[in-house]
Amino acid sequence: MADGFDIRRIDRRFIFVLIFVAVAWPLIQPMRLPIDVSPPVQGIYDAIEAVPAGSIVMLGGDYSPDSMPELQPMVETFVRHAFSKDLRVVIACLWPASPPLVERVTTPLAAEFGKEYGVDYVNLGYMAGGIVTLLGMGASIPNTFPTDYGGTPVGEIPLMQEVEDFDDIAIVMEVSAGTPGTREWVQQVQSRFGVTLASGVTAVSAPNFYPYIQSGQLVGLLGGLKGAAEYETLVGAPGDATKGMDAQSIVHALIVLFIILGNVTYFATRRRQAPAS
Amino acid sequence: MRREIPLAITFLVGVFMLVDYFVPHHAVSASAEELKQWGTIVIAASILLGIGNLIRVHSHKIRRKREGWGFSIVTLVGMGIMIVFGGPWGTVAEGSRFNWLFLNVQVPLQATTFSLLAFFIASAAYRAFRLRSAEASLLLIAAIIVMLGRVPLGQWMTRDLPTALQLPWLTETIMQYPNMAAFRGILMGAALGVMAMGLRVILGIERSYLGGEK
Amino acid sequence: MNWVQMLFNGPPGTPPSVVWGYWVAAILTISIYSFLFKDNPLYKFAESLFVGVGAGYWVCLLYHETIVPKLLQPLFFPVEGESIAWLRIFPGILAIFMLLRFYPKLGWLSRWALAFIVGMYSAVNITGFAQGDFVTQIHATITTPLSSGGTLAIILNVAAILGVIAVLTYFFFSKEHKGALGGVAKVGIWFLMVAFGASFGYTVMGRVSLLIGRMTFLLRDWLHLIE
Prior knowledge:
B: 3 domains, C: mainly alpha
């Protein structure tokens, strides 16, 4: 092998710097490439558009800070969509970190749309138990979540007087980063109680749920940051997801370049070594 | 009896929950509903057990002054501060100190730790992803199509091509057909495995969850 | 207000606690990213803090959101108009049994609590997987439309049905994959490779999104370099 620079043994910190620049630059100098909408996202938008004003919808918050960049924009856009259609939102979380993360979204949006806590929306907080909690909600949501996130008994919350079980919920938007999450909602809630179910998931798990879309168990799916950006486009409120798409584009192109370059150097090296053996 | 009673509990509770699925009678569903509430309480205790074990492990490390025991102090102090502000005498409400610590300490730490993976996946893309076989080639070609098709750049690059050659269309077709078919097969296979294992556990054939001691 | 003032005071109207919060979050973020250069005590400190704060958070939330409303309140401080829920003594006892695992002499009692959970979750998973992931998926495969949507859609739907069969054949290990069975299993492998490739593409997307989120925080909320 020749002396000096060997592209196969490049210090990985050089790659880290390239990735850092590839993310930072488009955030500072956005390209604003147009965003197309895929059928699974359109399915969710159409399903929520079809819900009559005044209906009660549910937001299932099943995520944590490590999936916030992908899922928080979905939560924000869904709540915005619901409030803009005068839908009332009940929030129930199976992951402990979700209630304050959802609250970060609902408080400013409620102020923007003039919505009142306890009347137009309620955050029931977190309940341990996973699938058992879901089944409990199928029997009685107030029994399963006896208080809201702030500790107020649900009997004292006006909105909860109209909610007993999933029959009172027009559509569930379930935002999930893992287990318990979309699969459990499909198995225990959609299959058992016939609920209309939509889901937003991290990109890592999105491919797993396409069978549920084809079977009709999910009316649609938001997959990762792109899914969130598509939903923002449909609702007409570009936010963090849309802003992140340029950086996503550049980094993806860079990683594809790394894969191609890595394979070119691999095959070139193999060809050079072959005559010697 | 130390193994027989737990096996009996598993069997009775398991069978009752199965009966609840098929029998809509009010007596069954009301009892099952109460049992489910019990389940959430016992699960909460199991999580506390895990956290208690964390305290035990780090306390042991500090007492024995094992390598990195200083960081164990950091862990326990961090836990202690959260409990001081959010425990039975405190509040977890928006605007509280507990909430501030969650949003400004836990959120950035957790989010940043997982964001490190982006750097490592880029490094691995260059160093490790090789077209070593026909199957690997199929995998990488699908990956490249999806990676470019799922971002606006892919749409922009192929906007003037016929629909069937546009990256977003190709991506969505891959997801809705071959990807869907493969994961459906995996789902069904996994479902069979879970059903079989569940029955083994309820019937007492599978006892590994009871541990090894008598 | 110049950039340096905004860095330390935030945009006009920002409470000091928010600005302090951004600085704490930024320092912790950079501590974690220092690992990319090499492992160091700052990273280890941040990692240890993460574990402790996360555990402490979970304890508090379990107490306020589950233990109090489901156990302590119904038993000791029932809501006005409701009677004491005496039945909740049983899960309370099971919860104590679970925690007795810390004491070797009484640790065997935790098996009773574990058996309760295992029995419940096994049964619930049997019915959930059977209905949601087995019966419904078979139904969806059998009822895949083969006469509408255009020629291409029909061809792709047929391919998808054959793909499901091929993948299931691949996972059938009771017979050696030779001859016709081996051929069908091979087709199953091709479908799996395409699916895993798609999953890899989505995984890259997911990981990069997390980095974009942190970068947005650093550049916008902390350094005010972007809108």
